[in-house]
Specification:
The structure holds two protein chains of two kinds. Chain A is built from 13 helices and two strands. By secondary structure, chain A is mostly helical. Chain A has one domain: Formate dehydrogenase/DMSO reductase fold (Up-down Bundle). In chain A, helix 5 crosses helix 6 (135-145). The N and C termini of chain A lie far apart (59 Å). Chain B has a domain at 43-116. Helix content of chain B is 18%, strand content 22%. Chain B is built from seven helices and twelve strands. In chain B, strand 7 (134-136) and strand 8 form a beta hairpin. The chains are: A mainly alpha, B alpha+beta. The interface between A and B is large, with 42 and 53 residues.
Chain lengths: 391, 244
């Protein structure tokens, strides 16, 4: 039996069945990926819907990035399921009282929306490449163009309207999708650490910051790789957006944390032991200190000082990396932390992730890498850096 | 027979689990007199063998908690048969006993509390199951369709009593069924059958003279964690403020 499951060491009293942690590091990756989707899509939508012109250099890229991330969102869940071959049961016979029953539909809707949005955004390129691209691949572009090869001004105007409408629908969908992921945790009354009405908005704003941070980092890295100049106005705009979202995210988490401690319901002694013990490094130092406070102060400096040039790029990118790490830590502290506090309220468990197993760190890491491989492949077919002609 | 709706929504024109059993004619309930429990753990071993539960210290359909108030301490010391000290005392993860770990200290009060699935009236596990693989039967038992469970473990998370666990061999969730295969044949659950002191009781509430009906009527019974709103259906006598 020892190869089938790993047991968690514990202190105090825990229910006998709790010594096998149900949700592993894969379930940490799942909300992290959905958050990156929501955040990166929102950056694209800020350009397409709200007309923030400084985001033009990343508008196409962020939409493509969101699609590559979104198609990978089900992966950690499929790896986690005891019977992944039955996964579609949730769509064939959804049990509608379950918060999780709508995941399949929500994810499918969002994938379709992102496919449509990307198709309209890249249609001009697809049509062009179908006519002038590498000959052996022209058939493929013509196939993807779906016979719609009109690139007249009127047609491009129609495309723009579709892009606008889909992005407008996509914003509440993205926010809803991630708020819903927060609800999956917040609605569970069995765990004091999760059971909170603030969980959906907390997940929402953490999604915004992680997605925006990812776009900053990915944009800078791809510019360096392509040896092109980084658009400073775009970086500044993204940094200000990240700064704004980060303030909301921190305030919400602060309120949630304060109310949990202030409420002081049954089991608070154990929770305080957890907070002042195992949580000091992952929460206070990594998530809050290095991952949130340092970027907040740095971004405040960027916003107020008007720093420019290489310095702006370095500072914003550093903040992006730190925020992405902080949100990953936040997912860990919520998903794993919640399970490390026993339902008895009288004991603590210690999750020790396996490295190689189906639910191990390597599997979770691979799931995080796959979207970026997909993105690289996608950019072999279309270019997210070409000037936007549809907008 | 009444048409019965099974998990997944497919209607079948036969009763469940057999033609001879009509689940609309029963309303099962379970009672525990904690003042009688001696912590012998025969119930735990009987359950494991009856239901093929993994013989280890991490998977239990039923378990027994020991509460010990030591002199000068306000909070009870709590352990179960799965505690490493008790496993060490039994010498094996497949057999269970409570170690005499407090013999050097002055014990003011001590008692045992048997635990199991509460087969709630409003079960959180049923609510959260995304495919309807876990469901409430007409006779009041919460069951899991192992042919339909996808193994997401959302139900394991949702149960406030820690009554569910994941069967890694089968890739599905598992828990106490009140020995549904036995009770539908007129037998008692294995844990009730083997209890030497009658601390565990099981019967049909539709029968006003049944043991649990009388137990509820003649005692001031309690349930575990009523604040969850799940409506648990295991009724206790002899609990204490420290029982969780």
């Amino acid at each position: 039996m020892d190869a089938l499951f790993a047991t968690a060491p514990f202190s105090g009293f825990v229910y006998p069945n709790e010594t096998v942690i149900p949700w592993s590091v894969l379930i940490v990756v799942y909300p992290y990926l959905t958050g990156l989707v929501a955040g990166s899509f929102t950056v694209g939508a800020l350009y397409h819907v709200f007309g923030l012109r400084q985001f033009a250099p990343v508008a196409k890229f962020s939409i493509l990035l969101a699609l590559c991330l979104m198609v990978c969102v089900p992966l950690p869940l499929l790896f986690h399921l005891g019977h992944p071959e039955r996964a579609f049961n949730a769509m064939i016979t959804p049990h509608l009282t379950s918060a999780f029953a709508i995941f399949g539909f929500a994810a499918l809707f969002y994938v379709i929306l992102l496919l449509l949005e990307n198709w309209f955004v890249y249609r001009d390129q697809i049509v062009e490449l179908g006519k002038t691209g590498w000959k052996p691949m022209r058939w493929w572009y013509r196939l993807v163009a779906l016979g719609s090869d009109d690139l007249s001004a009127a047609a491009m105007q129609a495309d723009h309207k579709w892009i606008y409408a889909l992005a407008a629908i996509g914003i509440p969908a993205a926010l809803g999708l991630h708020g819903y992921v927060g609800f999956v945790f917040g609605s569970l009354k069995s765990r004091e650490w999760w059971s909170s009405d603030l969980m959906p908005p907390i997940f929402l704003f953490s999604a915004m910051i992680s997605g925006t941070a990812l776009v900053i980092v990915a944009y800078v890295l791809t510019c360096l790789a392509r040896r092109v100049e980084i658009d400073l106005a775009c970086i500044r705009g993204l940094a200000v957006t990240l700064w704004g979202f980060l303030i909301f995210a921190l305030i919400l988490e602060g309120i949630e944390f304060a109310s949990l401690v202030y409420r002081g319901r049954e089991g608070i002694d154990t929770i305080m032991t957890f907070i002042t013990g195992p949580l000091i490094v992952p929460f206070f130092i990594l998530q809050f200190g290095i991952g949130s406070l340092v970027p907040l102060l740095t971004l405040t400096y960027i916003v107020w000082s008007g720093v420019d040039g290489r310095r702006l790029v370095v500072l914003a990118t550093t903040c992006g990396v730190l925020v992405m790490c902080a949100v990953l830590m936040m997912r860990w502290n919520v998903v794993i932390g919640g399970q490390e506090i026993s339902k008895t309220g009288k004991g603590l468990l210690e999750y020790r992730p396996e490295i190689f197993g189906r639910e191990g760190v390597l599997a979770a890491g691979s799931v995080l890498v796959v979207p970026f491989i997909l993105l690289w492949v996608a950019t072999r077919f279309v270019s997210p850096w070409k000037e936007d002609t549809a907008a | 027979m009444v048409p019965v709706r099974r998990a997944g929504g497919a209607a079948q024109d036969e009763s469940y689990p057999s033609k001879d059993y009509d689940w609309d004619k029963h309303r099962w309930a379970y009672a525990v007199d904690a003042t009688k429990c001696i912590g012998c753990l025969r119930c735990v071993e009987a359950c494991k063998r009856e239901n093929g539960v993994a013989l280890d210290a991490h998977h239990f359909r039923t378990w027994v908690e020991r509460y010990v108030y030591l002199e000068g301490e306000e909070q009870p010391r709590i352990d179960s048969q799965a505690d490493p000290v008790n496993i060490q005392a039994s010498g094996s993860e497949a057999t269970y006993r409570f170690a005499n770990r407090y013999r050097e200290q002055k014990v003011e009060k001590a008692f045992f509390v048997p635990k199991l699935c509460n087969h709630c009236t409003h079960p959180a596990c049923v609510q959260v199951c995304p495919v309807g693989a876990t469901y409430k039967t007409h006779d009041g038992v919460v069951l899991i369709d192992h042919q339909y469970c996808i193994g997401c473990q959302y139900c394991v998370q949702a149960c406030p009593y820690g009554a569910r666990f994941f069967n890694h061999k089968k890739g599905v969730s598992e828990k106490c069924t009140w020995c549904y295969h036995r009770i539908t044949r007129g037998l008692l659950p294995a844990c009730v059958e083997v209890c030497p002191v009658g601390a565990r009781m099981f019967s049909d509430l539709n029968d006003k003279d049944s043991v649990v009906s009388r137990f509820i009527r003649e005692n001031r019974v309690q349930v575990l964690r009523p604040e969850t709103g799940n409506g648990p259906n295991v009724f206790y006598v002899g609990l204490d403020k420290g029982v969780i």
